[in-house]
Amino acid sequence: MPISSLTRCGFILGLVLGSGPAALAADAQDTMAPPSPDAPAASPATPTTDPYAWLEDVTGAKPLAWVHTQNARADAELADTPAFARREADIRAILDSEAKIPEVEKIGDFYYNFWKDAQHERGLWRRTTLDEYRKPDPKWETVIDLDALGAAEGEKWVWHGADCLKPAYERCLVALSRGGSDADVTREFDLTNRQWVKDGFFRPESKGSLGWIDRDTVFVQTDFGDASMTTSGYPRIAKRWQRGTPLASAALVYEGKPADLAVTAFHDTTPGFARDFVSRALDFYSDELYLRGDDGALQKIDVPDSVIKSVHREWLLLQLRDPWTVEGKTYAAGALLATHLDDFMAGKRAFDVLFAPSASTSLENFAWTRHHLVLNALDDVKNRLSVLTPGADGWTTSTFVGAPGFGTLGVRAVDEDASDAVWLTATDYLTPSTLALAEVGRQPEVLKTMPAFFDASKDVIEQHFAVSKDGTRVPYFLVRPKDLAFDGTAPTLLYGYGGFEVSLTPAYSGIVGKGWLEAGGVYAVANIRGGGEYGPRWHQAALKQNRHKAYEDFAAVAQDLVARRITTPAHLGTMGGSNGGLLVGNMLTQYPELFGAVVVQVPLLDMKRYSHLLAGASWMAEYGDPDTADWNYIRTFSPYQLFDPKRDYPPVFFWTTTRDDRVHPAHARKMAAEMLAADKDVRYYENTEGGHGAGATNQQAAHLWALTYAFLWKELE
Fold first, then answer.
1. In a domain, 527, yes or no
2. Are 673 and 654 in contact (CB under 8 A)?
C-alpha cells in the first residue's frame, strides 16, 4: 500500500454526517471514532473558578447522576410519543437493513467485510469470494463474531480493524475497543483456523498500534509508562518487538518529544520494495518522515514538514500545503509532485507536477493501482477523476473511463500490488450509493446498489453561493422540495463542519432522508472556510486567529437561505458535531438571532480548557494554544466563555457520549449545565457508549438520532 507520512484518521476531529466521501454503509455505523473504560479527566490544573469543573470527572458518581437526570428529562420530553417510536423504528430499520452495500477489502483470495444488523448488534467480521460477492445475496463465512466474543469474555467489544500479514495472510493483528473508545487492545488472530493465537502478540489497552514487520516481529506504539505518551495522549515511542519476548524488552526504534503529536514506525510490505519508515508527527499539519535502514539508522525525507509525503513502490509523492521553492522553482500550495524516491534520497530535485490547483479546483485524494495513479479532484466541490500513468517518457494523462457524471465519487484500489482494478462509488443526497468494480481503462461493472431508504422523488439538489462578510463566495448545497413555496416557512436544517481540511460533498444518508427530507424538510450543507473544498488555501483561511471567517461564512449561508425566502430564523435549525459542534456552538452564542433551534453534537465548547482535556492538545495547530497569548483570539470563539445569561438564545439540544476519549464529554456537560442554571431552553443527552459517535450499537444510534429529529421538528415546524 502507499505509505503516507501521517495517517490522520486516528487523530481527526470529525463528525461528518450525510456528507463526505461515498461511505457505502454510512448509516450502518458511527461516523466518528472511539475511550477506555476509565477515560481520564486529563485535567491538569483544573480551574477552581469554573463552577462546573466537577463535570470533567468522566465516570464520577455525581457527574453521572447529573447525566442520568438530564437523559431522563430529554426522553420524557421527546421520546414519549407515537411519532417518536415510529421515527426510531424507521431509523433502526435503516441501520439494520441487510440490503445495505457491504463494503469489502481484498485480503488474499477472499473479500472481507465488517457487518452489523439486528441479529449482530456488535458485528461480524466475515468473508466471501468475488464470484459470491457479485451475487445479489452472497454467502458469507463468519471469521469473528463480536457479539459472541463479547458474551464469552464479558466485554462490550467494538471493532477497530485488522492488519493481516502479506503475502500469506495467515496471521492478523485485530484491534478491539471497549465500548468504542480510541483506546483499544490488539490481539493476534490465526486467519487459517479462525482462532486467537495462544500466547500471540498482545498489546494492552491504550491509544496506539501494532504493525507487522514479519511473522515474528512487529512495530509497537503504546503506553510504555514513564511519560511515554505525548501531551496529546498518543505514543511518542516506537519499538521493535520480537515474538516470544516480553513487551518490556522491545527494542527502541525512535523516541519523540512530549510536545509531539505522535510517533509511528511502520513497514512497507510491497513486493520488491519492502522498507521501514518512522513518522514523527509534530502537530496535526506537519511531520517528519524517515527511512529506516537495516542497521536502524534513520534518513530523513528532506522536504518541508507541512508536505504530505507518500511512498509507493519507486515513487515519492509530495502534496504541498504551502508554496515550496526548490532549486529556483516555486510550486504552488495544493500541488502534487512526483519523483523517484531513490533519486530524491541521492540529492536530485527534479519533479513532475501531477496536479496543479486553480481558483476552483483542489486535489481531494488519489489512489494507486499496479500501473496507474487515479486522481480525484474537486471543481467547485464536484468530483472529477483522471488517470495518470508513468512511463519511460514521463507521465501521461487520460480520462477515467465510465466515471459517473453526477455526485460524489470515491476510488480505492482492489489490490494495488497486483492489479489495476478499483472500487468506484457514486452517491449524492438523493441517489442511493452504487459500488462498481472498474478495471482502469474499461467500463465499470456495477456490483451493488444501495436501496432507497426514503422517497426522494419530490426533492431536487441545487448548489448556491453566499457572500461572506469579507466578500468571499461560499458554496453550499441545498436539497429542497421541487414545489417549495418560497414563502419563508420551510423547516430548514443547515449543516456544517469547517475545519481540519475536511470537504463536505454530497452523500446519501437514509437517516437524513427519513428523519428530515421525506417529511418535507429542507436540508443545506455549507462548504465554509476551514474545510478542504478548495485545498489548503481554503483551510488555512480560517486557522487560529482567522477562525471567525468560518463562522462568518456559515452565518452568510444562513442569511442567504432567508434572503432566498426558503426559510426564516424561526424555521431555521443548525446541526454540527465535534469541530462542527464548535461551529454551531458559536452560532448559538454569536448569531442566536439567525436560528430557531441548534443541535450540538460531541462538541468542543470550552476552548480555554480544550488542550488539557483528553486529545485536545493535538488540535492546537488548528485553534491555537489557550495557555499563551493565543487566548486573546481563542476567547472570541469559545462558546463556554461567550455565553451571556442575560441574552436570549434559541432552543438547544446538546448530546455526547461518556466513552468519548477524543473530545471530552465535559465540553457538552458544562455548557448545558451553565445554560440550564440560567434557565435557558436546553436539552441534554449522553450515551454511555459509542466513543466519538452516536452509539456503539444500531439501537443506541437510532435512539439518539430519533431524539435529534424529534427536537428539530418540535422547534422548527
1. yes
2. no
Contact 504, 531 (CB under 8 A): yes
Residue whose C-alpha cell reads 423504528 in the numeric block: 89
Sorted by sequence, the CB contacts under 8 Å of residue 669 that are 6+ apart come out as 52, 55, 63, 66, 67, 656, 684, 686
**For residues 530-547, b (16+ Cβ closer than 10 Å) or e, as one string?**
bbbbbbbbbbbbbbeeeb
Please give the average per-residue pLDDT across 360-389, as a whole number.
98
What is the domain count for the chain?
A: 2
Residue 578 designated active-site: yes
Q: Are 75 and 704 in contact (CB under 8 A)?
A: no
Question: What's the one-letter identity of residue 88?
Answer: E
Question: How far apart (Å, rounded) are the C-alpha atoms in residues 619 and 634?
Answer: 13
Domain CATH number, residue 596? 3.40.50.1820
Whether residues 485 and 461 share a domain: the answer is yes
The last residue of one of the domains, among 450, 465, 498, is 450
The residues, ordered by sequence, that sit 6+ positions from 710 with a Cβ below 8 Å of its Cβ are 78, 79, 81, 83, 84, 87
> Which strand (E) or helix (H) includes residue 461?
strand 459-467
| Residue 435 sits in the same domain as residue 541 | no
Contact 598, 570 (CB under 8 A): no
The SS3 of residue 628 is coil
In terms of domains, do 712 and 684 share one?
Answer: yes
Same domain? 659 vs 699 = yes
Residue of 578, 611, 618, 638 marked active site = 578
Instruction: Name the phi and psi angles at 93, rounded to 5.
Output: -65, -35
In a domain? residue 500: yes
| Residue 650 shares a structural domain with residue 710 | yes
15-45 pLDDT, tens digit per residue, is 434 333 333 333 433 333 222 223 333 333 3
Report whether the peptide linkage leading into residue 167 is cis, meaning its omega lies within 30 degrees of zero: yes
* Residue tagged active-site, from 612, 667, 692, 703: 692
In terms of domains, do 607 and 471 share one? yes
CB 574 within 8 A of CB 599: yes
Rounded CA-CA distance 571/166 in Å is: 55
Joined grid coordinates for residue 689: 457508549
Average pLDDT estimate for 467-478: 98
* Closest to 469 measured CA to CA, from 534, 408, 554, 391: 554
Indicate the residue among 400, 431, 450 that finishes a domain.
Answer: 450
The question of whether 664 is a catalytic residue gets the answer no
Domain assignment present for residue 567? The answer is yes
3-state secondary structure of 578: strand
pLDDT digits (tens, 9 = 90+) for 432-455: 999 999 999 999 999 999 999 999
| Mean pLDDT, residues 611-620 taken together | 94
3-state SS string for 633-691: HHHHHCHHHHCCCCCCCCCEEEEEECCCCCCCCHHHHHHHHHHHHCCCCEEEEEECCCC
Euclidean distance between CA atoms 368 and 390, whole angstroms: 11
> Kind of pairing, strands 308-312 and 315-319?
antiparallel
Same domain, 610 and 703: yes
Q: What are phi and psi of 619, to 5 degrees?
A: -110, 15
**Residue 680 grid coordinates:** 435557558
- pLDDT higher than 50, residue 456: yes
Measure the CA–CA gap between 124 and 116, rounded to whole angstroms.
7
